[in-house]
Amino acid sequence: MESHDVRFGELAGPLVHGARFFDWELISTQVVTEAFGHAFEDIVDAGGIPYAPVVAATTVYRYPGFRDTVTVETTPTSVGESSVELCYEMTDDDGDRLATGRLTHVTIAPEGGAGPLPEDTRMRFREALDETAPEVGPRGADGGGELPNFSASFDVRSPHIECSELAYFEEYPRFADVALERFLESREASPDATSGGCNPFRLRDWRWEFVSPVEYESTLTVESDVRAVTEETLRIGHRFESDGSVRIEGVTEYGCFDESGAPTSIAPQLRSLFTGE
């Protein structure tokens, strides 16, 4: 269990930035794995990469804002020789759901590849297993018609890595957001000016598979394939590439949220930026 008061620097407008959900998941991972006898600090000291996500899926029900307290309850749902799946239930002060995530993690050994979990940690995970299997991530279907593709490239340097040699987990949704923003600029549109009073194009549902990390001083290209546009979601296939290899691949659904953080419909003028209608 980990609780966190939303602070000013985490906000994007009146609500938190979507990348914060990734951040809270990893902070909670660090808390729970230390409680299970496998501290991040010890793994880093030994030259490993602790609990790197392999598959990450999350659904956001409400975006928290200033004065909200976010509590994350983390439960192991599956464990293998070198991997563990954790379920993250994020709630507000009243115990109402904010988001649910399911992430599969592996620890990368100093020599590369997934290292085995310590037997004592694996046993503790097994003892705490919960059979819960919430359905999270994108559930929509690809649409038809002519929908746009777009891409953007980024040099992976500080502050995307700070003291690490790899891009941070929570930086990837920021890169995807900037790619989307640049596309909107190419259509000579400002999402704020055409939002219909909502907070537009915020992460709502996603499922990403992490193939390999992105290293310092590499160039990361985000390829975005718009697959469906509905009143509730903008569905985009994402592919993150560097050095000619796919690093991350998945599907992301964006939505609009009102001032309280609740999901609302996407204004017709926003949908038309992608459909041309």
UniProtKB/TrEMBL annotation:
Name this protein carries in UniProt: Acyl-[acyl-carrier-protein] thioesterase
Domain Thioesterase, chain residue ranges per copy: 50-97
InterPro entries: HotDog_dom_sf, Thioestr_dom
